[in-house]
Amino acid sequence: MSSEPDVSVVIPTCNRPELAARAVRSALGQTHQNLEVIVVVDGPDEATAAALGAIGDPRLSVIVLPERGKAPNARNTGARAARGRWTAMLDDDDEWLPTKIERQLELAAAATVESPVIACQMISRTPRADTVMPRRLPEPGEPISEYLLVRRGLFYGDGFVQTSCIMAPTALWHKVPFTVGLRRAQELDWTLRAMREPGTALLYVPEPLVLWHQDENRDRISLENPWREQLEWLRGNRELFTPRAYAAFTLSVLSSMAAPTRDAKLFRELLAEAREHGDPAAVDYLTHMQIWALPPSVRHRLRDAVVSRGNKNSDNAG
Fold first, then answer.
1. 35: part of which helix (H) or strand (E)?
2. What is the C-alpha separation between 187 and 117, in angstroms, rounded?
3. What gap in Å lies between CA 51 and CA 38, rounded to an integer?
4. Strand locations in 164-255, DSSP E?
5. Would you say 265 and 292 are in contact if contact means Cβ atoms under 8 Å apart?
């Protein structure tokens, strides 16, 4: 094994020692062994430091920040410390399957662009169901913002990218860091900005290599609904979206955050935003309406039923 790792793995964590240790073990257990794992503890946390210290692998290093700065800051800190040519992100409550890095390095070696961003499919695990995401991969020439945001069905999107699935050149993480202070859509924001850099392309390994644990009784940033903050972010980054994608984000993602307010004025405000600055299609209007009309529990059950039926049809077709 060379003195320098091929891949650096960055895991931000805070006050979740058991989860952090599980994530670390999934990274250290990769079939590609020439890697380092950098855990960035977001503020003093004796329990996590003790749990990680018990692992005893020389490839593991721990950075403890003096105060909390949230996950984007922790990820940026880890990326700056990375020694590998490639850096892969892993959230502390997710796990990698053993061949994840091996498969991504194979795809990276075959890439025809200078700075490929290598993602993969994942298993989204909730108490209700397991779902493979994304449901489809980008089509040739498809704008990335439209791939990630434009829906073809009322209850789910087909395109997707998640932090624990992303591996990219370490130099790109330095050039395009995560946006500190952004609470939602962190990987969307990063991906859209990274894809504007010369020589980049988003490539997917077409198999699920990450286990995304969505325990719905656990606090996670992704369950917060800072709709006003997200609207300001959207307006300030309009150049990252095609008009079609801008409308889709407004009437699906923003709509789902704002719907719990039951504020009719806000319902109309989002419609006006999508129409003034985007190009909504019929599915966007229908998505917006069903998000506001149906309770989240009903929408989740309908989505699971539709996705499950689609998966069974795909299996039968294969």
1. strand 35-41
2. 12
3. 14
4. 167-169, 200-213
5. no
The residue among 120, 126, 72, 94 whose CA lies nearest residue 307 is: 126
Q: Which two tokens stand for residue 194?
A: 């990274």
* Residue written as token pair 């403890």: 64
50-54, 88-92, 216-220, 269-273 — which is least confidently predicted? 216-220
For the record, the structure tokens of 151 come out as: 């829906």
How far, in whole angstroms, is CA 231 from its chain's centroid?
19
By the 8 A CB rule, do 168 and 181 touch?
Answer: no
Phi, psi of 133 (to 5 degrees): -135, 145
Q: What is the pLDDT of residue 217?
A: 47
Q: State the average pLDDT for the chain.
A: 90
B/e letters for 68-102, b = 16+ CB within 10 Å, e = fewer, are ebbbbbbbbbbbbebebebbbbbbbbbbbbebbbe
Is the backbone peptide bond immediately before 127 cis, with ω within 30 degrees of 0? no
Count other C-beta atoms under 10 Å from residue 175's C-beta.
Answer: 12
The pLDDT of residue 214 is 83
Look at residue 316 in the predicted model and tell me its pLDDT: 47
Residue 318, pLDDT score: 43
| Residue 4 Cα distances to 59, 105, 173, angstroms | 11, 16, 18
Q: Which tokens is 27 given?
A: 């990274």
